Structure formats: C-alpha cells, structure tokens
C-alpha cells in the first residue's frame, strides 16, 4: 500500500505540490480556453485562415522545451528554471491579451508553448525531489489530473468571457494566476532547490531536431484533415505525414542508442530486457487514443441528436473517467495490476463505442467513453512513477541527469502522442462516407491501437 493522500499535504510538501500542479493546470487550461474563445477573437482581429494554426504553434515549442527539461535543470536551479518557464508562459499570455492581429496572437501562442512545455516537463522532474519515492504515484496522479480539471475549467472560462464579449479577459485572468503561482515558487520549491545540479552534457541538437520535426510533421498532418482539408489530397498528405513522423521517431531511437550520443531519453530506455521502453510506449498508446474526445461532441450532436450543451457534457466523459481512474488507482496501489488492466479497459470501451454508433444509444456511448478514460487513468500514475524511477539504479544511486531525462520524457512523449493521435483520428474521421461511418472507423481504429497497449503493458508493469 502506498502512503496516504494526507502525506502529500504534510508541511514542506504541500507548497511543492501546489506549485507543480498549478503550473500544469495553467498549461492545460490554456489549451482548452483558447479553443472556446477563438471564434470571438477571430471575429475581432481577423485571420480566420490561420484558425487551425493557433493550436499548432502552441504545441510545437512545447514539445521541444519539454524535451530540454534535463538540460534546463543542468543550467539553472530548479526554482530559477520554473520561474523562467512561468515568465515565458506569462509573457506569451499577455501578448495574446493585447494582440491586435492574428499574427501577434500566434506569436504569443508560440511563447506560451515554450513556457508551458517546460512547466509540464519540470513538474515530473521536480516531483522526484519534492516528494519521497513512496508518493511518486500519487504525485503523478495529482499532476496528470490537472489535464482533466483543465478540460472542465478551460471551456467554461473561455466561454464566459467570450459570451460577455470580453475574450481578452480570459488571457488577463491567466496572467494573474501565473503571477500567483510564481509567488509560491520560492517557498514551494525550497526542497527541490537543494537538489544537486545535473551534470551538463553536450546539447542534444540532433535529438531535438528529430523531435521537433516529428511534431511539426504531425501538426501538418492534423491540419491536412481538418475542416475543408478532409479531401483526397488531405488524406494523402495526412497519411504520408504520419508515416514520415514515425520514421523520424525511429531515427530518434536509432540515434540515441548510439554510444556517447547526446540524448533526451534516459539510457535505461535502451537496456535490453528493461521495462522503461515499454513504459513509454504504453503511456503513448493510452494518451494517443484519448484524442477521440475532440470529435465526441460532433458525434453527439449529429448521431445522438444532443444539444450543443449536452454534447459538450458527453465530450468530457472520457476526461471524467480518466481523473476518477487516476485518483482511485493511486489510492489503492497495486501498480502491476493497474498497468496491466488499464489498456484492457480501453479496448473494452472502444469496442463498445464501435459497436453502438449506429444505434444512437447515448448512455452506452457515455459508458464506453468513461470506460476508455478509466483505462488511461488507472494505468497512468503507475506508468509515470515507473518512468521517474528510470534514472535510478538498483542500488538506489542515479546517473547524472538520467532521472531528469526519464521524468521529462513523460511530457515529451505525452505531447507527441497527442499530436500522433490527433492526426490518426483526423484520418479516421475523414475516411468515413458519413458521420456514423466516421465514428465507427475512429473508435474501431483507436481500439486496435489500444490492443498494442495491452501487449506492451505486459513488460511495462515490471516497472510499476
């Protein structure tokens, strides 16, 4: 049995938990708040043809900076790195708040993503020193749960300000919250500040370029099948982009396996017979299949006859299952069982969704989405804790910088999986001859991907 939740709030820990969760919540809320207020922003400042790029220019720098978390901790102290990440996020948000044109808004989004990716990467890296090892699972659950909270808070925050005709106010609110989180950093990360600095290693230029290129290709692939781009040409571009991105990721692995290579992944990833590679792949599968949530409101309205409000509630069913699964699983423990059963729950949820799309049975859809979300949540905190331990040797010692790489890789892989899942989902939806066929292809395809997770989980559970 793991330590209780009360231990997370013990003196000397609650500040760190609050600061780290606050940083991730900022990143998560901003991801969703912008989508809800963007129509109002476009109506005022124009630039509708760049609508889809608002998300793309946010995620691209986020992927790159999350990969450089270990480098950041080798260059700056923990508190300075976190404050710099908050500064970049806050400056980018402030630019969005005063943006007179879409070009300026995109600039702000890029600066936001730079800070947000580092915030998310630092959260997992610093939880290793802010909390004792027996609380890593709960800490991972708390951090990851912020994405579920963001999915609930973001659209409401953006919608309220947009409805009032004050869409800039949402960004101003985010700036204020960023300042509040920053004020808690000196005290909250006091223990993390005492950690020995990572040894500076050669800059992993080639690895960063390969990661960035894969993220860029996946983003273009997603754009190719969004909106009016869902034609034959768009499908070819998107399908080819997915293949190219996978090839770039294979090249990344091949490069990092080389002796002496400057890496963004921990060396244990490439240890023959070790579980860490399976941990990352299983995590990527679980996060990737959750990309279906972007299309749930559409299917709810067109196939289930739901109003936009109720379709929106259906859209958060997966996130609700995710959060409930995380909190329950982290409380119960039993990491090996949780990692093994998580992908199985995902397969079951997607199977139910696939078989019921033509029936209009909304309650069954909701149950299937919750089941799929539970699959992600049940396994995730144990996968994250297992990854954080990836830089620790059997005797309890840690190779220089390996723990930071192992922890930061969680966020990098999470974001790449989101981009890959979104591109894959877009292709599935675009291939359907009608909405029902699109839904069936999407859920069925994601169910097949989830099967891969059940296989890799057999090895990944050894790290739990």
Automatic annotation (TrEMBL):
One GO CC annotation: plasma membrane
Cell compartments where the protein resides: Cell membrane
Gene3D superfamilies in the record: MFS general substrate transporter like domains (1.20.1250.20)
Principal location: membrane
Residue ranges annotated for the Major facilitator superfamily (MFS) profile domain, each copy included: 16-462
Membrane topology, record value: Multi-pass membrane protein
GO MF annotation terms: transmembrane transporter activity
Keyword Cytoplasm attributed: no
InterPro entries: MFS (IPR011701), MFS_dom (IPR020846), MFS_trans_sf (IPR036259), Tet-R_TetA/multi-R_MdtG-like (IPR001958)
Membrane spanning stretches: 51-69, 81-104, 110-127, 139-161, 167-189, 201-223, 235-255, 276-299, 305-325, 337-356, 362-385, 406-431, 437-458
Pfam family name, one: MFS_1
Keyword terms, alphabetized: Membrane, Transmembrane, Transmembrane helix
Keyword Transmembrane helix: yes
SUPFAM superfamilies cross-referenced by the UniProt entry: MFS general substrate transporter
Record's protein name: MFS family permease
